[in-house]
Automatic annotation (TrEMBL):
Membrane topology: Single-pass type II membrane protein
Keyword Glycoprotein in annotation: yes
GO MF entries: sulfotransferase activity
Pfam families: Sulfotransfer_2
Membrane-crossing residue ranges in chain numbering: none
Recorded name of the encoding gene: Chst8_1
Keyword Zinc: no
Leading EC class: transferase
Compartments where located: Golgi apparatus membrane
Name of the protein in its database record: Carbohydrate sulfotransferase
Length: 165
């Protein structure tokens, strides 16, 4: 196939037959993260130009779906989980456990390649941050965010997300 020798990396550049052949030849892993946690991480990394989390969220909501940054765009629109059959879906917050399983399946030594931070520390930290940040938002912003991420919340098990309520 000519796609073996091309530099293109976007699937949209290939026809359906080529896409099917390529996807069938790879183990497909999708890493997913609670959309509210993604927003918090983006804000803390300084990607929002506003001083408060609430005004950053307003920027996100005002940008809409089509002008969204990939840092906060809904995962369903980025990763097409309804079209691509992923072999594994790895949830952020369970990385150590799930990556260990993946590495063992691939025949790699799991112990030395995993991050130091434990999943329980990650979950506790984001739970605390979520409570603090969520309390800064207006009822309208909370409702709009839940709507903005409705397909992510339906597609993935983010049952403990602050946006699920």
């Amino acid at each position: 196939h000519h796609w073996l020798h091309t530099r293109e990396t976007r699937l949209s550049k290939f026809n359906q037959t080529e896409i099917k052949a390529m996807l069938g030849s790879y183990t497909k892993v999708l890493f997913v993260r609670d959309p509210f946690h993604r927003l918090i991480a983006t804000f803390l990394q300084g990607m929002g130009i506003t001083p408060s989390f609430s005004s950053f969220i307003q920027e996100v909501l005002d940008s809409g779906m089509h002008n969204s940054s990939t840092a906060w765009k809904p995962l369903v629109s980025l990763c097409q989980p309804c079209l691509i059959q992923y072999d594994y879906v790895v949830m952020f917050g369970f990385l150590r456990q799930e990556l260990g399983h993946l590495l063992r399946r691939a025949g790699l030594p799991a112990g030395s390649l995993l991050p130091e931070l434990t999943d329980s520390q990650v979950q506790w930290t984001y739970r605390w941050l979520s409570e603090q940040m969520f309390s800064e938002l207006s009822a309208q912003q909370k409702k709009q965010l839940s709507h903005f991420y409705r397909w992510d919340l339906a597609a993935f098990p983010f049952s403990s997300s602050f946006l699920s309520g």
